[in-house]
Design goal:
This protein is an alpha/beta fold. The protein has a domain at 17-66 and 100-132: Ribosomal protein L13 (Ribosomal Protein L13p, Chain: A). Helices cover 28% and strands 17% of the residues. It has 5 helices and 6 strands, in the order βαβαββαααββ. The chain has a 4-stranded parallel β-sheet, covered by helices on one side. A two-stranded antiparallel ribbon has the order 3-4. α1 crosses α4 (100-109) and α3 packs across α4. It is globular and about 60 Å long. The termini are far apart.
Length: 145
C-alpha cells in the first residue's frame, strides 16, 4: 500500500460559488441537466456523492425557455390530490404561462437525488421569470451551457 487515500469532502469544508444562467432560447432538458450537475457539485474536483458540495444557481428568463418539437402542446403536467377522480392535467404552454419558475424547478428536481440530500441541493436553486433578481450582491459568474 502506497499511502494514497481518497479525499472525501466534509460539509464545513465546502466552498460555494454563485452561478447565473439565462434560460432564453435554451431547451429545457439541456438547461435542467447542466443546472442539476452544478447543484450536485459534479463540476468540482471535491465532488462527494453523500455530501452536498454544489453551488448556488440563479436562472433568469424562465418564461422564455424553449421546448423542441410540438411539446408546447403535447407535453402534459399532472398533479393529483390522492382523491379518486381528482387528477388534474395541464398542457405545458398553460403551465409555462402561469408559473414559468415552477417549470424549471420541476425539471431540475427530477434530475437530483430523490431524498433529503436532493431537497437540500434544490434549495440552492433560484429561478426568476424575467431578468431581474435580488442576488446582485453575490456577483454570480455566468454559467456556460
Amino acid at each position: 500500500m502506497n499511502g494514497t487515500k481518497t479525499k472525501m469532502a466534509k460539509q464545513p469544508e465546502v466552498v460555494r460559488d454563485w452561478w447565473i444562467v439565462s434560460a432564453q432560447g435554451v431547451p429545457l432538458g439541456r438547461l435542467a441537466a447542466k443546472v442539476a450537475s452544478v447543484l450536485r457539485g459534479k463540476h468540482k474536483p471535491t465532488y462527494t456523492p453523500h455530501v452536498d458540495t454544489g453551488d448556488f444557481v440563479i436562472v433568469t428568463d424562465a418564461a422564455k425557455v424553449m421546448l423542441t418539437g410540438d411539446k408546447l402542446r403535447q407535453k402534459i403536467y399532472y398533479r393529483a390530490s390522492t382523491r379518486p377522480g381528482h387528477l388534474k392535467q395541464q398542457e405545458y404552454r398553460h403551465f409555462l404561462a402561469r408559473q414559468p419558475e415552477k417549470v424549471i424547478i420541476k425539471a431540475v428536481k427530477g434530475m437530483l437525488p430523490h431524498n433529503a440530500l436532493g431537497r437540500q441541493m434544490l434549495s440552492k436553486l433560484k429561478v426568476y421569470a424575467d431578468t431581474e433578481h435580488p442576488h446582485e450582491a453575490q456577483q454570480a459568474k455566468p454559467l456556460a451551457l
